[in-house]
Structure formats: structure tokens, C-alpha cells
């Protein structure tokens, strides 16, 4: 027998006030994106597995929670990420819309496995995607919307970490030729900044990339010094341009070989961190959407994950609830709600402000602290 | 003032060699740190911005991966065992050298051909690493997790083989075991929590640079 209330590993109920905080965070992010012209799409929780994979060029096979649909006998998968679904919408039902298309979304996503570091299997993802462009101008807009959204959601001490997801491939294809069989292993080592491992793999030529990571200005200078034959110049110039308006507003870092979660990104990627939150809170970057005719369309976007923010107490606000005693004229409570109060009406004579966790009580038409 | 940077250091084998490195990085722990009778776990240093915690080697990785400590010093054996995604290992400190090996009783080794294995039963402190290692060469490893005294396992029939750290090979020899396969060379690494590396880059990155310089100097010497 399953003990009452027990949920599967990695799932949980959110109660008041955390559930409200989560909803508030989602709303603020979507509202910010809406102000910049991003309109909401709402893809389904599950779809055919074939539709979920392969739309974005991913190096890694994804772990999906799958079921066989008893109706169609096809494999369904629960979405692990909404970005791919937005890509599908852009490439099918909205393929005829003029580009760029600006779309936003929010909803729960499911991971097959939880880890000790990220024990949740269900996450609330919210984000925005710009489809049809992945230029510096597009990147600047997406980064700005992401930062603005976090600020409006009340997140303080934001760190924006830039990365160049296709850097190793670019270098391996040019100034630092590498045995293709080795590339994956080297990328993994670079992702873990494993200096000892790189030495063991005879890939010391890449070590300056590990050493370059750090505060934006110093990292940029180190990369410019490392830049062989100018293979990186245009990318570094682009990063500088994107970073310029953000100086002083958020902490900027640059980590050229970061690959955590950048399985499908192309030239540009970024991760977001916040003071007091232990892990990453969001990420974004440029990528390509595959169309049915084999064409690849550039796109760029960001996703935020609300749960670590809610757990860190962000989005919470003081519970101001006004207790309306039994028998009060409904017109009075309506007027007081119009003034911005949250009212909690007593439905029986025995109810009390304490029982309803109210901060204030209505006495003679005035809100008095409890 | 902001929270201090916490460096997790392991009890035991690596600590002795790590202290001179810390000293060269300008980090001198308070007196209680070297006092074996002290029960304290957390220590201040001469630098008010840095404090130390002393925990088991395996816990160094866990503390740092969760961001409870920002930096740590730990053997690459531990990093391979956990394979934590939130850890960076930007500096090979060049200390605590040893190797992780498969060993078995001398009598078994005389007739044994590792090429013919399909299934092995192994006693080890490193079940994940061991399973991965054997899997990569097409062998299924059934692991018995022990926390110490691995050498007893073959003797008492708990398992036929062990996977453990070997430095001189003396312990193996004294227990009638021989090393049959080296899984990996091990050395101590400076590890950094991924989020701390970004959000506290201004404090963390110069520290990493300093350790890199110190470790680099050692290699050249």
C-alpha cells in the first residue's frame, strides 16, 4: 500500500504561499516578454516522441518519460523542455508567419531522472524564443528581456555567464585540429574544467580555454590573447557588443567552454545565476530549428526555471489578508477590494481572523492590524 | 562583509601535502586546525575572507557540488566516482599521487585471464567508477560497497576481486593480493562549485589562478 500523501520521487505539492510565489514569478516573466512583443503559445504536456526529438540539433539522446498511447499505439513522451515544442510550432503551424516570430511560454516539464543535486523531476519552465534570426541584435534583445524579466520578478544579484557553445568544434575544425573520435571526450573534460584530465588526454592545447574563464573583461582579454589566426574575433566582438549595455547592471562572466545544458546551442549561449540561489536559474542561446524540407532556421531564446527561485524565497510577499466579520455588507468588502485589499469573508459567526491567517481585521469600516 | 569563501579539505592522505600548498597561497589555518585533539570541524584562517572545513574525502566533493563550500581539495578518484555535474576541477595540484587498480589474490591471478571475464564480483569503495570501468570493456561488475579494509574481502570470500587505491602496493602484498589492472592514475585536484565560479568570480577566480600558479611551479621544478 502507498502511504497516504506519498508522491513519486522528485514530485511535490506546492502549497500557499509558495504556489502563489511561483505563479507570480511566471506571470512577471511572461508580462515582461509580452511588453517586448512576445506572444504566448501553449503546447501540450505530451506529444508523439518523434515530434519532440530531432527538431533541435542535439548531440545527446534525451531521457524521456515515454508511454505507448493506447489510442494510436504510437510512443508518446512527456515534454522535458518546451523550447523544442515552440520550435515545432514555428516550423509547422506558424511556418508561414513573417519572421522573426516572437513567442513566449510557461508550463511544467518532466525529467526522467532526478539527481542528488537537482532532485526535482517536475520543473516550471518559462521563457521566450525569437525565431528566424540569431544575429547580435537578436541576442542582445533576448538577453535584455531575460534580465528585465528576472529583475521584475524580484531577483537580485544576477550573474550572466556567457559561453560559446560551438567553440570547440570551430577550433577543432581550424587552428586546433583534433581526432574526431576524441572531440566528445575533450568537450566533456572542458565542460568539467578538468585540467588533469585534459593533460591525460593530450589535449593541453585547449587548457588556455579553461584558464580563460572568469570575470567578463579578464576572460575576454585572455581569449583575445589566445585567439589563433582570428578564428574567434567575430564571436568575441559580438559578445562585447551584447555585454556592453549590461555593464554595471548585472555581474558578467565569460566561460568559453561551458556546455551544461547547451546540447543544441550554436554560436551563442548564456546561463543565469542569482545571489543566494545554489544552482543555475536559467539559460539561453542561439540554435537551429529543423524544417521538414531539411532547411535549418536560426533562432534564439531563453528559459527560466522558477522552482529554485521559489525555494530561495524569491517571489514571496507579505501575506496581507483582511478578515471581514460575519454579516458585513458585501458592498463594503467590494469597495475595500477595489482599494487593493485581499478580503477573507467569515462565512459563519464562529470564524476568526486567526483561523483564516489574516493580518488585518475590518472594524467600523477600517482595516486594523490583528 | 560578504560570506567567507569556504574551502573543504579532506582528512587523511592528501591533507599533509595540501597544507604547504595552502600556505604558499597565503592561507594559514588557525592553530586548532593542526591540533589532532580538536573536535572542531570549521576553522578560520589568517584571511578573514576564507575559512576551512575538514571533512571526509568523499564529502569534500558533496559539500562543494551542493555549493555548501565554494572550493575544495580532493583526489580525482572521488571526482570520478561521483561524476557531479556541478563541479569544476580547474587545477591538478600535483599532490596525492597514487593509482586506482583492480587486485586479486595471488593464486587466482596465476591462472586468471582478464580477457575472458564476463562478470566479476568486486569489493570497493568506488561502486560507480568500478561499474563504469568494467562496463566499458564489456564486463558486468557486481559491486559490494565497503568503506575500508577492502583487502579482507577476497580473503574471507566476500568477493574475488577488489578495486582500491594503490600507492606503494605494500598493503596488497601483505594481504596476498596482486595488482592486475590499473584503472586510472589519481592525483589531488582543486575543485570549484560551478555556481560559485560564476556568481563569486571576482573572489574565486583569483584564488584558482593562484593555485594554478603554485601547482605549475611544482611541475616545472
Automatic annotation (TrEMBL), chain A:
Gene Ontology BP terms: histidyl-tRNA aminoacylation
Cellular component aspect of the GO annotation: cytoplasm
InterPro entries the UniProt entry points to: aa-tRNA-synth_II (IPR006195), aa-tRNA-synth_II/BPL/LPL (IPR045864), HisRS-like_core (IPR041715), HisRS/HisZ (IPR004516)
SUPFAM superfamilies (alphabetical): Class II aaRS and biotin synthetases
Annotated positions binding L-histidine: 81-83, 125, 129
The keyword rRNA-binding is assigned to this record: no
Source species, domain of life: Bacteria
GO molecular function, one term: histidine-tRNA ligase activity
PROSITE patterns xrefs: AA_TRNA_LIGASE_II
Keywords recorded for this protein, A-Z: Glycosyltransferase, Transferase
Subunit comment: Homodimer.
Name by which UniProt lists this protein: Histidine--tRNA ligase
Organism: Sphingobium boeckii
Automatic annotation (TrEMBL), chain B:
Free-text comment on this protein's domains from its UniProt entry: Lacks the C-terminal regulatory region which is replaced by HisZ.
Keyword Transferase in record: yes
Localization annotation: Cytoplasm
Pathway: Amino-acid biosynthesis; L-histidine biosynthesis; L-histidine from 5-phospho-alpha-D-ribose 1-diphosphate: step 1/9
One of the GO biological process terms: L-histidine biosynthetic process
Keyword Transferase tagged: yes
GO molecular function (one): ATP binding
PANTHER family registered for this protein in UniProt: ATP PHOSPHORIBOSYLTRANSFERASE, ATP PHOSPHORIBOSYLTRANSFERASE ATP-PRTASE
An annotated GO cellular component: cytoplasm
Catalytic activity, reaction form: 1-(5-phospho-beta-D-ribosyl)-ATP + diphosphate = 5-phospho-alpha-D-ribose 1-diphosphate + ATP
Keyword terms: Amino-acid biosynthesis, ATP-binding, Cytoplasm, Glycosyltransferase, Histidine biosynthesis, Nucleotide-binding, Transferase
Name of this protein: ATP phosphoribosyltransferase
Subunit description: Heteromultimer composed of HisG and HisZ subunits.
Role according to the record: Catalyzes the condensation of ATP and 5-phosphoribose 1-diphosphate to form N'-(5'-phosphoribosyl)-ATP (PR-ATP). Has a crucial role in the pathway because the rate of histidine biosynthesis seems to be controlled primarily by regulation of HisG enzymatic activity.
UniProt family annotation: Belongs to the ATP phosphoribosyltransferase family. Short subfamily.
Known EC number: 2.4.2.17
Top-rank taxon: Bacteria
Amino acid at each position: 500500500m502507498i502511504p497516504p500523501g506519498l508522491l513519486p520521487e522528485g514530485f511535490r505539492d506546492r502549497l500557499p504561499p509558495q504556489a502563489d510565489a511561483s505563479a507570480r514569478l511566471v506571470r512577471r516573466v511572461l508580462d515582461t516578454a509580452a511588453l517586448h512583443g512576445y506572444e504566448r503559445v501553449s503546447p501540450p504536456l505530451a506529444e508523439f516522441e518523434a515530434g519532440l526529438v530531432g527538431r533541435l540539433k542535439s548531440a545527446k539522446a534525451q531521457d524521456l518519460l515515454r508511454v505507448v498511447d493506447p489510442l494510436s499505439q504510437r510512443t508518446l513522451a512527456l515534454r522535458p523542455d518546451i523550447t523544442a515544442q515552440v520550435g515545432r510550432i514555428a516550423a509547422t503551424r506558424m511556418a508561414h508567419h513573417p519572421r522573426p516570430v516572437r513567442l513566449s511560454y510557461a508550463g511544467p516539464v518532466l525529467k526522467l531522472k532526478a539527481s542528488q543535486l537537482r532532485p526535482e523531476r517536475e520543473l516550471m519552465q518559462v521563457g521566450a524564443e525569437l525565431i528566424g534570426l540569431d544575429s547580435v541584435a537578436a541576442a542582445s534583445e533576448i538577453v535584455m528581456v531575460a534580465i528585465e524579466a528576472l529583475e521584475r520578478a524580484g531577483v537580485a544579484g544576477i550573474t550572466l555567464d556567457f559561453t560559446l557553445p560551438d567553440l570547440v568544434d570551430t577550433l577543432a575544425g581550424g587552428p586546433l585540429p583534433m581526432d574526431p573520435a576524441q572531440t566528445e571526450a575533450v568537450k566533456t573534460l572542458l565542460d568539467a574544467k578538468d585540467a588533469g584530465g585534459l593533460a591525460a588526454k593530450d589535449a593541453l592545447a585547449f587548457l588556455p580555454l579553461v584558464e580563460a574563464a572568469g570575470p567578463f573583461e579578464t576572460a575576454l582579454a585572455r581569449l583575445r590573447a589566445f585567439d589563433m589566426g582570428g578564428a574567434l574575433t567575430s564571436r568575441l566582438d559580438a559578445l562585447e557588443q551584447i555585454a556592453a549595455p549590461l555593464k554595471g547592471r548585472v555581474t558578467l562572466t565569460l566561460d568559453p567552454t561551458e556546455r551544461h545544458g547547451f546540447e543544441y546551442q550554436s554560436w551563442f549561449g548564456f546561463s543565469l545565476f542569482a545571489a543566494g540561489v545554489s544552482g543555475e536559474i536559467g539559460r539561453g542561446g542561439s540554435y537551429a530549428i529543423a524544417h521538414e524540407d531539411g532547411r535549418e532556421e536560426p533562432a534564439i531564446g531563453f528559459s527560466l526555471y522558477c522552482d529554485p527561485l521559489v525555494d530561495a524565497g524569491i517571489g514571496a510577499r507579505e501575506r496581507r489578508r483582511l478578515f471581514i466579520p460575519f454579516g458585513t455588507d458585501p458592498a463594503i468588502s467590494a469597495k475595500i477590494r477595489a482599494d487593493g485589499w485581499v478580503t477573507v469573508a467569515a462565512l459563519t459567526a464562529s470564524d476568526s481572523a486567526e483561523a483564516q491567517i489574516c493580518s488585518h481585521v475590518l472594524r467600523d469600516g477600517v482595516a486594523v492590524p490583528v | 562583509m560578504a560570506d567567507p569563501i569556504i574551502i573543504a579539505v579532506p582528512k587523511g592522505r592528501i591533507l599533509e601535502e595540501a597544507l604547504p600548498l595552502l600556505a604558499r597561497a597565503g592561507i594559514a589555518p588557525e592553530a586548532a586546525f593542526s591540533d589532532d585533539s580538536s573536535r572542531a570541524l570549521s576553522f578560520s584562517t589568517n584571511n578573514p575572507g576564507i575559512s576551512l572545513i575538514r571533512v571526509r574525502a568523499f564529502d569534500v566533493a558533496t559539500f562543494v557540488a551542493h555549493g555548501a563550500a565554494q572550493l575544495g581539495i580532493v583526489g580525482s578518484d572521488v571526482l570520478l566516482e561521483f561524476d557531479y555535474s556541478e563541479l569544476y576541477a580547474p587545477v591538478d595540484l600535483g599532490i596525492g599521487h597514487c593509482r586506482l587498480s583492480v587486485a586479486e589474490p595471488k593464486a587466482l591471478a596465476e591462472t586468471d585471464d582478464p580477457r575472458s571475464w564476463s562478470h566479476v564480483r568486486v569489493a570497493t569503495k568506488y561502486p560507480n567508477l568500478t561499474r563504469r570501468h568494467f562496463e566499458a570493456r564489456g564486463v558486468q561488475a557486481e559491486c559490494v560497497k565497503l568503506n575500508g579494509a577492502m583487502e579482507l574481502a577476497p580473503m574471507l570470500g566476500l568477493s574475488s576481486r577488489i578495486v582500491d587505491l594503490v600507492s606503494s602496493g605494500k598493503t596488497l602484498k601483505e594481504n596476498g593480493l596482486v595488482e592486475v589492472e590499473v584503472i586510472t592514475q589519481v592525483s589531488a585536484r582543486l575543485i570549484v562549485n560551478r555556481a560559485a565560479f560564476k556568481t563569486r568570480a571576482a573572489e574565486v577566480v583569483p584564488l584558482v589562478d593562484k593555485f594554478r600558479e603554485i601547482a605549475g611551479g611544482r611541475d616545472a621544478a
